[in-house]
Amino acid sequence: MSDPTFSAVPEHVAIIMDGNGRWANARGLPRTMGHRKGVEAVRETVRAAGDIGVKYLTLFAFSSENWRRPETEVSDLLGLLKAFIRRDLAELHRQNVRIRVIGDRSNLRGDILPLLIEAEETTRDNTALTLVIAFNYGSRDEIARAVVSLAKDVEAGRLRPQDISPELLDARLDTAGIPDPDLIIRTSGEERLSNFLLWQAAYSEFMFMPEYWPDFSRDLFFAALEKYAARDRRFGGLSGKQAAAVGS
After folding, report:
1. Is residue 239 part of a domain?
2. Is the pTM of this model over 0.85?
3. Are 43 and 85 in contact (CB under 8 A)?
4. pLDDT at 247 over 80
5. Which of 25, 66, 126, 195 is flagged as catalytic?
């Protein structure tokens, strides 16, 4: 069966992949099984996004707050990330997918950072879907790091305080050069951003879905895109119908 067509496909979709642990608990399984099943949902979603014409897909893989989880769960999450990159990097490269990683890299473990850099460098020149992996990422931390960068330039005399603008701050964020997300999806029924893309989400559409992430599928992804296409994005202005009424 062919993929559906939409009147508007978002250029950038960001996803908070929530509910792996609850999916496992509901089935009497260890939480690690939920994370492993969640990796399968990642693969299916990446393929669906590329097939339908999404240009950027950002996945909240590991937050800066996730280090507070039990050590065994953290180790399993990191192991899954490493396995995903080692197993899937060649296939993603063949599919012309570019990988970009956002988040604080300053204190990452030595066995993680080289893999992230390898994934970025290997796929740097690819031109299809850009897969943005948010790892050790927290939006408040990202904004604070950007502000420190600007403050250093002011202190060094390279920048005047009055010249600081939203555009200049935007260029210092981890997402510099990436368009803001048109659509942010969160699974598991929770309805909050949880420190994810706070700056970039200023005019994003939100979709909160009850399904746990391991149950997320190609069909659910396309259902979200269908709802997105029906929305009227005004960016603080008038809708098309309202503008026409004013002009008539």
Report:
1. no
2. yes
3. no
4. no
5. 66
